[in-house]
Amino acid sequence: MNSIIVDQVKNNNELLISSVQSFYRNFSSLFRKNQLMLILVNSASDILLVESTHPSNPYIKPGTKADPLLVDYLLNDQGETKISQKLISGKINHRVTNWELLMNWYFTGINLQRNQKNIFHFLFLLTPDNHLVHLLNPLIQSFSKTIEENLLNKEKISQLNISKEYIDIISKSSKDGILCLDKEANIKYMNEVAGKILHVNPEKSLNQYIGEIVDFVPVVLSVFKTKKGYTDREFIIHSRTWGTLHFIKTAVIVKDIKGQFAGVVDFFREITRVRKFVTSYIGAQAKFNFNDLIGNNTQLRESIRIAKIAAQSNSNVLIIGETGTGKEMIAQAIHYEGNRKSGPFVTINCGAIPRDLAESEFFGYEPGSFTGADRKGRSGKFELANGGTIFLDEIEELPINLQIKLLRFIQERQITRIGGIKQIPVNVRIITASNKDLQKEIQLGRFRKDLYHRINVIKINLPNLKNRKEDIPSLIEHLTKKLSLKLEKKSPAIDPSFIQSLLNYDFPGNVRELENIIERILNICDDKILTIKHIPKEIINDQNQTNYSLIEDSKRHQISSILLQTDWNISKAAHRLQLSRPTLYRYIKKWNLNQTKTSFNYY
Ligand SMILES: Nc1ncnc2c1ncn2[C@@H]1O[C@H](COP(=O)(O)OP(=O)(O)OP(=O)(O)O)[C@@H](O)[C@H]1O
Ligand SMILES: [Mg+2]
Predict the structure, then answer these.
(1) Nearest CA residue ID for atom 2, ligand 1
(2) pLDDT digits over 350-389, tens only?
(3) Can you name the residues that pair with 254 across neighbouring β-strands?
(4) What is the C-alpha separation between 345 and 284, in angstroms, rounded?
(5) Structural domains for the chain
(6) What is the pTM of this model?
């Protein structure tokens, strides 16, 4: 226990102790010759250090207590020191046994200071030689000065080391490139990320002129002319060796003590990283994979089979399907299961962007390109999707001028921002979707044929829900579970009557409509089992109407056919139809049947 305390005391005072030690080492011959002893004591009267050539004294050693009165002696009532006001000799303090052993020694003490402030550590100088008594005071004053200076230097160095440690950690863990340049634009520091972005070796680049290590004119050089830094500015640079370098940069001016320009610290971040952050921030990530697609319908399985092949390729995909058939789901699954999985998945709904903003939404714009635009310029969705997939939904709504630009992009794989001249390479996979017959749009002159052929490399047709009713039961089960989870409710059981009534419905809104119906029901009901009584009225009514007209249709068909067969003999027909004659007449009247109509309309 004791040793731990000593160790702690030691740790806390390490710098001070080492300062006193190095002082003693430098003057050891002086100490030896004159039998001097130096003792360092803290404010709690712990002896921290004893430096002496005198045979060691078991009572005066580090870790033991010095006489607290000794420390008191050096302080007046206000806690200020009374340094060397007195020099006492002979008996140090009769009341303290430890020090009694030094009864014939003379001593003086001083309170050590840092920047003229007491640090409440005390230095004592002792000698048994009475000739030296008059020298003790001047000696301890000059000793303490030297030790204090030494301590100050040590502290500065230690601070510098800590700062360097911080800087090392910051620059190593930073995902930004960091470059420190002196006033001649020579490299003074470069972190590894900067080396990677600029394709140079950070260590070998030290002290070299920045213009010499890269094969383009470094944009940071402009700061050396203007002496003005900037924050988050975007730069696109063409390197002969490395192609296009695209980053966001911040340059900070460094000044010396006199306020003179002393260099620049340059921070830069590759645009791909910025985009990654943006896409994760705005949630441009695919959520669905192929396992999320429910259904065993042959046509759906065939579409999924093709989509899985598409996922392994980079070809453009066109997905055709009515609203709510799962076009976006399939597009996400293709992205999610392909090699662009970790890249962004960016959706543009071509039908939802105002026409005059569509181009800037697609390709971005340079600063000051048009009124109302952001002053700094902005990158478009294509750039944001770099390294990933862009999903162009409702492609048939794309204005003709953009159809041409999209076609050009597909050929060149580069974009030019509005108001810009630079071509920016963008690596995206294009998936388009439409709920219209694009061939028809081509015939109507609303869609370019050449673009159609470009986007239609792999075509996926998604069936309507009414054409795959066999999947409705499993979809109901899946969606009920999924939505209960979302609504944080216990998933209810499903009664056959619930499924049956939905099987009779046509679902013009396809799976999305089924999903909405179930979500609405789960929202308002807490029952343990879903039955026909939970089905919204309009859906049942809709079915009744259909069923009713269906029944009516077939009845009308039957009656007309019998009338025709019996040559409009009402009695015979009524008999065969098992209707009374007045009832048959009522039907004839209701449907306005007559001999010509029956033959013409129903056969
Ligand atoms: N096969 C499926 N299995 C499970 N859920 C599906 C399936 N198809 C569609 N869905 C569900 O239906 C909803 C609509 O799907 P999605 O948004 O992909 O359709 P869409 O064809 O893009 O529709 P729109 O044309 O209206 O944009 C989704 O929320 C999804 O949960
Ligand atoms: Mg969609």
Answers:
(1) 293
(2) 888 888 888 999 999 888 766 655 567 788 899 889 889 9
(3) 263
(4) 5
(5) 2-158 (3.30.450.40), 176-278 (3.30.450.20), 282-461 (3.40.50.300), 465-535 (1.10.8.60), 547-602 (1.10.10)
(6) 0.59
